[in-house]
Here is the input.
Amino acid sequence: MTSRDGFQWTPETGLTQGVPSLGVISPQTNIKDTGSDGPWDVIVIGGGYCGLTATRDLTVAGFKTLLLEARDRIGGRSWSSNIDGYPYEMGGTWVHWHQSHVWREITRYKMHNALSPSFNFSRGVNHFQLRTNPSTSTYMTHEAEDELLRSAVEKFTNVDGNHGRTILPFPHDMFYVPEFRKYDEMSYAQRIEQIQDELSPNERAALESFILLCSCGKLENSSFGEFLHWWAMSGYTYQGCMDCLITYKFTGGQSTFARKFWEEAVGTGKLEYVFGCPVRSVVDDESGNGVRVTARDGREFVAKRVVCTIPLNVLSTIQFSPALSKERISAMQAGHVNMCAKVHAEVDNKDMRSWTGITYPFNKLCYAIGDGTTPAGNTHLVCFGTDANHLQPEEDVQETLKAVGELAPGQFGVKRLVFHNWVKDEFAKGAWFFSRPGLVSECLEGLRERHGGVVFANSDWALGWRSFIDGAIEEGTRAARVLLEELGPKKEVKARL
Amino acid sequence: MTSRDGFQWTPETGLTQGVPSLGVISPQTNIKDTGSDGPWDVIVIGGGYCGLTATRDLTVAGFKTLLLEARDRIGGRSWSSNIDGYPYEMGGTWVHWHQSHVWREITRYKMHNALSPSFNFSRGVNHFQLRTNPSTSTYMTHEAEDELLRSAVEKFTNVDGNHGRTILPFPHDMFYVPEFRKYDEMSYAQRIEQIQDELSPNERAALESFILLCSCGKLENSSFGEFLHWWAMSGYTYQGCMDCLITYKFTGGQSTFARKFWEEAVGTGKLEYVFGCPVRSVVDDESGNGVRVTARDGREFVAKRVVCTIPLNVLSTIQFSPALSKERISAMQAGHVNMCAKVHAEVDNKDMRSWTGITYPFNKLCYAIGDGTTPAGNTHLVCFGTDANHLQPEEDVQETLKAVGELAPGQFGVKRLVFHNWVKDEFAKGAWFFSRPGLVSECLEGLRERHGGVVFANSDWALGWRSFIDGAIEEGTRAARVLLEELGPKKEVKARL
Here is the structure.
C-alpha cells in the first residue's frame, strides 16, 4: 500500500509524493455507518506509538475503543517505507534494550531477534570524514571519531565533575536536584561558551554537529538540560548515547513493529477506527454525557473518555472546550524546536557502507552514516539536517542533491532520495520533541495534567525517553492505566486485602 | 504482618524466625469453599514477580485466574522486611532504568520517584577497605576502588578486543555469534587462568570477589558466558554494571512494589488465590478437560491452562504428567549454582554509611557496602557470601557475627542481623539463577518450551535480565501474552485488515 506521506526522487522518475509502507491501513475504517457504533468507552486520537499503545492496552482490557487518525497509516512520527523490499526509516528509527518501554514491547512481540545494527565497519570506505569547510576533509578511523566525540561531549556534559550523575541522579525525576533547573534554562550556545577554551576546533565542530543532530534546532534555541537528560538516560556516557540513539534498528522497518500493536488491538474485537480523519474539536461539556470529538468533515464521536495523543506543535490546531490550562497553552505557543531534515540517499558506491561523516557548519546536511546496503547493492546513507542551516528537501531537489554530495565530494552518485518533510507535515509540524531552554521546567507538569475527560499523552512530555518511541509507549501506557483505573471494575481491594 | 520467612537476631532477643513484611497476604485465601469457584481459565503457580505479572496481565484482560503460592507472602525471591519502618531487602533488591521490564512497571505504577541510592559517600568512613588476609587492610578512595575493579573486570571481559561487543552484540539473542558458546562453556576459573598474568594481586582478589558476588557460586562452577551476558546487558562497562546491579532500590522496600501488581490484579475482581499452598503435582491428561493442579494438602484445582513459575532448583519437587522433556529434566538435575548468603547488619558506627569493602578469600562474607541509615541512626551494611566459602547464617550466629566483624575489624558493634537463608528455603533452593558452564547453551531453549497446557515461566530462563526481577517480569509478560493469544477472543484480523 502507498501512503500519501513521504517523497521519493530518482533520476528516472524525478520527485514523487507518497511512498509505500506496511503501516498503511486498508480499508481506512471498519465503521459502516457513521456514529452507529458509538458511544465508546474511549476515543484515542492519533495512531502513533502512543495512541497504538493506549489502544492496545484498552482493547485488551475489554474497553470499546475508537481510534481516530488523521493520516492513512499507523506509526505517527515513526514509520518505514518499503521500497523494493528495503526499509527506509522516515522518522523515529533506533531502539535499544536500555529503553524500557520499547524494549518491553520488543520482547513481548518476540522481535528481539528482528534487529540489525546500522553500522557495519567491514567495507572499503571505512573511516570518518570531517568537513568543516567546503574545500577540505579530515579523515579519521572510527576509533578516532569516537575519541573525538567522547572527549568533546564529556566536556560539554561534565557540569558537576561527575559526568552529570550528581546533578541528574534520577533522570525520570529531572528536578530531584532543584539546581538542575538552571541547566534546563541554558541553551547549547551558552553551555558551549562556558567550555569553548577547552575545545579544539575539530572537537567543537563535531560536538555542535552531534548535539544539533539530537535537537535539530539551533544552538541558541536548544536546551542544554534536555541534552543532559538524554545523556543520563543513556547511562552518562558517549558510548551509551551511540548505543541508544543510533545503533539498532528493525530489520524489516519500524512499521513491522507498529503493526504488532495494531494487530493485537484489532484481534480483541474491541477496536473501531477511522483513518484519514483529522480532528477539529474536543468538547467535554462536563454534563457527564461524555466527551464529543468532531472531525474536520463534521462527523461526531462520543466517548466516556478521550486520549489525545496529538503532538505539542499541532495541539493548537484543535479547539478544546473547556479551554486548555495556561501552562498547556503557553507550551503550545512556545512549541518545540526540532526542525529535522532527514534524507535517505541510495548512492552507487558500495564501499560507503562503512563511512560516517560530519559536514558542519557550512552544509545543509550535517551528520550522516552508512546505514545499509540496498537490494541493488548500493549504499544507503542516512543524512540529517537541522534548523541551524535549514533544508526543505522537496522544495529544490538540486539543492538537496548538492547537500548530499557535499558530505563526501566525488565519492558517489545518487540513485535515489527518500524522505518525509516533518516540518511541513501539518500533523507533526516538526520532528521529535526537543525542548527550548526552560520549556521543560516551566511546562512539563502542566503538559501531563489531566483535562476533564481528556488524558493528554505524547512522547513530547514523557518522563524518560521523551521524544523517543520509548516515550510514546510510556505515555500510551500511562494513559491506558489511568483509564483502566477509572473505568475498570469496581474495586474490592479493601475488602479483599 | 509477619512472614514465616526470614530470620532476625539482636543481642536482646537472640535468633528468631519470621520477620514482618508488607508482602504478607491476609487472609491467605479468598476461596470460601474448596474447588467451588473453579474451573479457572488459568492457574498461576507462584506469586513472585513472574507469577504476579502473569496474574496481573491475565486478570486485567478479563481471565478468571487462580494464584497458588506456597509461602504466606508475595514476591518470591524478592521481598523486604520492614522493621521499625526500615526496609531490609531479603532477596532481589536493585533496579535501574536500563532494565526494561521492571522499569516499565515502575513508571506505570508511578514509582519512578520512590527510589533511593544505596551508596552515600558523604559520611566519615568514606573509603574502600580491601582485606585479602586476616591480618591487614588496604584502604582506597572510592575512585580508586572503581578504577581497580574497572581495570580488572575489563581484562576479564575483553575477549574480543571490543569489550564483548563483537562476541555478544545482541544479548537477548546470546548465540547470534555462534562462537559465544565457548565462553558459556567456560568457567570463571578457566577465564581467570587465561588472564592471570595481567592481574595484580589486588585486581585478582577484587575481581574474584566481584564476579562471585554475581554468581554466588564457586569459581569452578560459574559460567563466564553468563557474566558476559550481565556485562552486555549493562552496556559493556563496569560503571554500567554498578548502576544496574547495586545502586538504586525502592525507598519503601521491594514489597511496596510487589503490592502494586497484587492490588491491580485483585482490583479486577477476576483473581482468586490461595497462599500457604505448595503444589504436589500438575497433570495435563490431554483430554481437553484442562490441567489439574494438586496441592500437597490434596486440594485439586482445574484450569484451561497453567503458568508454572517454580524456580529451576525446585522444579524437581513437583510431579508432572506427561513427563517433562529431556532438556528440562537435564537442566533441573544440573541446577543453578547460586548459593548466596545475604546478611544485613545494623552496626553502631554511623560513619560506616560511606564504607565499602571486599574481604576475600578468607572470610565467609566477601563483599559488603553501607546501604542505609536505620531509624536508630545506625549504619545498615549489606553483606554477601558465596558458595566459594559457604555460610549458613542461622546455624551458628557467632560465626555469622564473626564474618561480619571481619569485614572491618574493630570498626563497629553489631546491633541486629536480618537475613533469609535462600539455600535452605525449600521453595527456592538457592538465590537468583546463575548458570553452570554450558547450562544456558544446552538448556535455555528447552526451559522455555511449551509443555502441553503448561507454560513454564521464570526469571531463571529469561532472555534479557535473566536472574533479575526484570527477567521475572519479562517471563510473566511472555506467559500472559501466550495465553492471551490462545484463550482470547476469536481473531477477525484477516477480515479487518
